[in-house]
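Tutorial handout. Part one gives the primary structure; part two gives the three-dimensional structure as tokens.
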Amino acid sequence: MDFSFGAEDGELRARARAWLTGHLVGPYADAVGLGGPGSEHEEVPARRAWERELGRGGWIGQGWDAPDGAYGQRRLSLTGQVVWAEEYAALRAPGRVGHIGENLLAPTLLAYGSREQQGRFLPGIARGEELWCQGYSEPGAGSDLAAVRTRAVRDRADGRYRVTGQKIWTSLAGDADWCFVLARTEPGSRRHRGLSFLLVRMDQPGRVEVRPIRQMSGTSEFNEVYFDGAEADGAVGAEGDGWTVAMGLLALERGVSTLVQQIGFAAELERVLAAYAASAEAGDPVLRERLVRQWAELRTMRWNALRTLGDGGGPGAPSVAKLLWGGWHKRLGELAVAVRGAAATAGPAPWAPGLPYERGLDEGQRLFLFTRADTIYGGSDEIQRNIIAERVLGLPKESR
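Part two.
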């Protein structure tokens, strides 16, 4: 695959840089470098407003399989999307709060949804006005998603579903306007059968309750969500075909978004290298070797992601990508504290009563604590290895 940048990409880079520089002013300037995994609590109102600013500029939905401008978005090539992501990362623009709607739900609606659903939901996502969260995992149904027990009953009077159950580890649920929910719509069904992919409005007092989950870092990106007869607008795809839609969404999650993620990883690695150079541990040959390996592995992941964009990567590509970046990011978190030596055990501010815990952590410490979960959430390493072994390599299935 030829993934070199052309003249058009150079022109786009200049336009993107000029647009970002001209718009990262006022309250948006205060949010520069803030937000993102492990720091989703930072400057949320400003980042929600920034999402709408991106929408007005047409920068949301660049990779959608839809005509240019169909929903107010500009359609960019793969290289164009990477150019935008690189400029966004270089200027440390605010962490996106619309990622789940733009990169997960929207491509799924374009692939499986009705025209009515596309017309109803895609414009709001493209304008940055409606935020989404993902209702997949449950207690007892995390990596084993087929064990979902949340149920939904279709009302014969109005055709709407009533959803009852619990979801957990739901990112950004406290700020989301909508949630796409995998629920069991066929009574008595088991495993992959009888599931439907439903769209649920979050603002339903008494029917939807969000409870934040406090993490080791002191923040609460993740939440428990309780549904008690919550109304759902309808199923994406056919009723009972939710497993196909849900797995299709996970496959669509990779691609350019993986490259965007790696740009953020590269910036984090640069900061860890700078901390190493300024610390008493500088020159330690073991740490130096670990840092060089970390750099080389990131380059390998980039080339693997580019290859996957070119040929699709095959059925195991999403699992390979998750296995690679989960372990890499966790090791980076470990390096973030290792390069500082004993100083990493002390916070930059005293952990005194009344002081929010997260304010007593510096960036490296937050990175270390947050990345402990990278090999677990989104499908644990063990599950990813099983998928690769059974579905790609054809090895015997694990006994259950």
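Part three, for discussion. The longest strand covers residues 223-235. The beta strands are 132-135, 151-154, 161-167, 178-184, 195-201, 208-212, 223-235.
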